[in-house]
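Predict structure. Chain length: 164.
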Amino acid sequence: MEAIPIRTARRGDVPSLLMLWGAMVEENARVDGRLAIHPDAREHMSRALAAWIDDPTRVVLVAEEGRRLIVGFAAGHVTDGDSLHAARRLGQITDCFVAPARRRGGCGRRLVSRLHDLLLEKGAECVRLQVAARNEGSQDFWRTLGYEVLEDVLERPPVPMRPR
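Prediction complete.
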């Protein structure tokens, strides 16, 4: 099977990117209902994706099958560190998704590899990302690429606390 080409996203890709983004957040919401999106999120994300494509500090890549069908994407940017930790320039992978029917063929691995390289070219000293704790498939994918847990984010449901 021939590798699916990876390229930089263009403005005309926004509808496809939005569809893939929606599938990504729905997948996470299925494994953990707390990750369900706000009703206005798609409208906001449509504007954000277009802005990301135009923003020279960001990188948005797509995997395009047959020169027309976008089957995956990855996005990230480089930010200043927080002055508390060693990295002065931090690469952030904000989004990465491959259509389930196109998984297990190396597409996601190639998207991330290219995105990682571009973030380093933009000055990142390390690259971080967040993964839904209950999305085991995603957790496994990132671990195979050498990512490891740095911190855990804990959340408490909005129930009253009882004094001890």
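Summary: The first strand starts at residue 6 and ends at 8.
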